[in-house]
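Structure tokens please, single chain.
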Amino acid sequence: MIQFRQVSKQYKDSAKTMAVDGVDLSIQDGEFVFIVGDSGAGKSTLLKLMMGLERPTGGNILVDGLNVSQIKRSKLPEYRRRFGCIFQDFQLLKDFTAYENVAFAQRVIGTKNKNIRKRVPKALADVGLEGKEKSYPSQLSGGEQQRVAIARALVNGPLYLIADEPTGNLDQTNTDEVMALLEALNRTGTTVIVITHDTAVVERMQKRVVELKDGRIVSDTAWHAAQKATESVQPVPDNIELTAPAPALPTEQKEEAVPQEAAEELPTESEVLPEEEEDEGYVQERLDLGEEEEPEEEPEQVEMDIAAITPPQLPEIPPLVVPKVDLPESDSARKSRVVSEVLKGWTAPTEEAAEVVSGDAAVAEPAEDSSEDTAVAEAAEDLPAEAALTENAAADEAEKLPAEEGDGKDA
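Here you go.
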């Protein structure tokens, strides 16, 4: 059921157009309704409000008990599946066959391929296009193209079928065929809402007519019919008392006993096999699209395991002990040590020092000087200034020795 309660829609343009102004309208399930009016009367805006394509600036719109303006935007596509739309210019995909055009509406909502293969041929057969599945729109007449559009609108099983000027591009013969098809669909329980300017069609169909003008309802044949029905009811005479019927007493239903022989023939639960589910075609379910109340979740109590997050104690590592290794003394270290000993006490060179001096003299290989003089000269180079003066004094004393000592030395 569709209900408009004081619905208004004003666009935010420069003229601040009031497309719909205080509309009250009710459309029962299974009705066939014509909405008529001049261009700009508010017919298209009325349908957009009904389908949730526009939000009203005032009033409420209830569809199957749901307030359309309160439906979440994420659920609007699911809500719009309740409606199937037929347009004046068919709006078929030119590169798609009749089958593919109808199947496209099923693929948009994620229907499985096995169900598409069952539902699409049935929808085309319902509109009289059996055998035209592989035909392209250019190969079909205007009436056949409109039938493909109707099949596409019906394949998802809508609860409400909206036709916006469905006969605007058709001749009289195709117009009669399409309107007869819509009437047949209405007899199956589908609510049909048709917007049209064709007064001849409206008069011939003899259905409910709602007329709009400047965004307001100026005429509604259903209201006039209800008014006439109210006037035709005769008042009840005062001398007749109206009493409510007595409520029926509940009767106890006894369970019929099953004969023992018949009970033995009944199959057990394990023997009963589940029947295979069959696709019944395009069936629109009444979905509950109201706002979901999310249950309040209690905060989860987290217990921390201290032992699990404590790092393990590492074993104590003993200090590293490096063994002391006595390495052999090098020649340069030995020479330095000898010279240091000589300089510390300035004593006579030891036997080891003599070997060092003799070794150095052999390496130098002097031409004229003796090994002793060479050793003294080398030692003098490394001595401080005071040691050098002492060495010079010793040399002077040697020069003063008598010649005899020198001759004896030569001999």
